[in-house]
């Protein structure tokens, strides 16, 4: 893990304003390294910290000179430096399994960038320590559950305790945890008042599902070739008649893959393919549009000073507010999962068509010459099972409800759950597409069909055909699907 990061030549400078979701993924997966922070942004964070300390020393500022939640009416003495550590200790109660390194690293990237936006009023030494951890390959142990979409309090409290030397770090080979920091009553809430974990996980899920959406088009195009389907549904006049951006992009990609003109001639034979082929632009397009909408929302969030209270340098004031409430992200994540789910259903529909002799002119289930050969029959069941799991995690998390902290916090977005569900959807979507890919390549082999030379679809076919087992007799297909799962990221780049 460390070596991968060290080999990465690209450096990304965090400045509180220009972070993109792709940058989060690169830093989380260590294909890029963090550069020193933008000097102006770091100076802004320092001034915010000094302003917050003055305000807390001279007036009532939530979480600094008062308790939090229903304890907001209780004053804390300015000399009570232990208040911050008590707050971190009490809130560092996340439960469940420890999160993977890349998810924790994504959280750290987002939190550093938000701190550089200049509204947190946090000790800037925290920024330096977190950047050092990102660069070296160290991350705090963070457990999965502890948030309901109104701030990732438990995960960030564990991070705060790790910075203070009271919570464990996980280090890549050769990496070291940052030296312990002295955090006081001004630093605790300023660190944990953020949805950084949710946003980091969302960025990772968006990146992976975008790649899978890209891979699904060459897979679908191979299936279309295998059944002798029509490119009429992807014609430019059809898209111009109902000009949704995502649908037009999907149709254009399908034509490009197969090298067909904007106004393809209708095929001889059957009129109108099943929906799995004919309605691809209308079903794939909304997923592309939902991905763009989510990306836009996440870009706002990861560059936002959303801490409560907001420390305004310009006004020399602390504003108490609700910017921590993550409804935008929750709703966009729910919409995105539901849109991607529709494309997965379409994949299982194409898989069913590949098993039909009426479409392939082959034996049922792409069976070989043996009597009653089952061929790829089980792939429909396997893909259906994965689709069922995907459907379960596509249930809108924003339908959840919680009343917390003695009724003071009477609503929750559950964006944190939406982010975890979206990450889980990636695995199931891969499995569904892999089943279709195995069947499509098998059908093309059995029909002795290949795309014309020089086309992007030709590259996709040979990538898959070279990797997949060519044997046609009845046998377990588990290994074939596993190979196909591993091909999808490469197919996305074609």
Automatic annotation (TrEMBL):
User: What highest taxon heads this organism's lineage?
Assistant: Bacteria
State the protein's name: Histidine ammonia-lyase
- Gene3D superfamilies referenced in this protein's UniProt entry, alphabetically: Fumarase/aspartase (Central domain) (1.20.200.10), Fumarase/aspartase (N-terminal domain) (1.10.275.10)
Q: Does the keyword Lyase apply?
A: yes
A GO MF annotation of the entry reads: ammonia-lyase activity
Q: Which UniProt keywords apply?
A: Lyase
Q: Output the InterPro entries linked to this UniProt entry.
A: Aromatic_Lyase (IPR001106), Fumarase/histidase_N (IPR024083), L-Aspartase-like (IPR008948)
